[in-house]
Amino acid sequence: MRFAFYPFPFILHPLMNRIPHTKENWYTTKQITDRIIAIAEWGHTEEVLAFLLIGDKEAAVIDTCCGFFSLREIIEQHNDLPCKVINTHQHFDHIGNNFEFDQVLMPDHPANRRRAQEGLSAEFCAEFATPEQFWGTVPAGLPEPYAIRPFPQATFFKDGDVLELDPFRLEVLHTPGHCADHCCFFEREMGILFGGDNLYDGPIFIQKKDGLAQYRLSIERLCSLENLQRILPSHNGFDFPLGKLHQIREALAGIHTAELEETVVVDGPMRLMPVPYAA
């Protein structure tokens, strides 16, 4: 989650805020590899992405966007295998369509167990569906009220687990800092890291309490990965250049406080920003 405001001009997808968005064109897809398809919600200020992984016998989608419109319908246009959900963390813009799927896997954290049973209320979600949260026109057909439906079918994984989806083997890396439950997934043989909300070209939000120390450790862990060739982020663009990971590491080295007390510019729109929320 990047919060309900966006403090910078809309520069990454400048044409999108002039295109009327509808249910029919809400999602933008891009073939990343022959087995990975990115699915983006460029019409909302979160600019969030999901990633469809097509295995030999089943598929998986990493995160399920905001839940304004059906994600399953889009997935079924690209894949006819059974599909499960794998979540990086439990913020609203990553779990919005979890309820559509029979199998949901999440990081094992008390907040996630609660979120699976309760969802998120319309009162909580209201601020994310105001006209200001959409680039250009508000699409017709938004759910009224907008809320995140529960998904009690969820099961849970932990740090060090390997999620098998032949030929994918996703290593679970617990990488807190953005929130306590956050995980990245590394496909070591392919050299692909699914970076979630730890790595993207925009404002990266860090928990104000204990988040900075956790984020430092998470970035060090990611920098130490062997055979890291490509990073797929959860916001703002289809790729995150490897060099920017090391720019974040350098920016962190220049912070000499225990907590992140003010915004730190890393490069262009990418900056580290303190927020009070916790998972």
List keywords for this structure.
seven-stranded mixed sheet; 279 residues; five-stranded mixed sheet; 15 strands; alpha/beta
Description:
By secondary structure, this protein is an alpha/beta fold. It contains six helices and 15 strands. It has a seven-stranded mixed β-sheet, with no helix packed on it. Strand 10 and strand 11 form a beta hairpin. Helix 5 crosses helix 6. It is globular and about 45 Å long. The termini are close together.
The tally of beta strands, per DSSP, is: 15
Spatial order of the strands forming the largest sheet: 1-2-3-4-5-6-7
* Count of runs of 4 or more consecutive helical residues: 6
Please state the average pLDDT score: 92
Largest sheet: 7 strands, mixed
Order of helices and strands: EEEEHEHEHHEEEEEEHEHEE
Helix content estimate = 10-25%
- List low-confidence stretches: 3-18
How would you classify the helix and strand content by structural class? alpha/beta
β content, as a range? Answer: 25-35%
Shape: globular
Q: Determine the N-to-C terminus distance.
A: 11 Å
Radius of gyration: 17 Å
Short synopsis of the structure:
With 279 residues, this protein is an alpha/beta fold. It is 18% helix and 26% strand. It contains 6 helices and 15 strands.
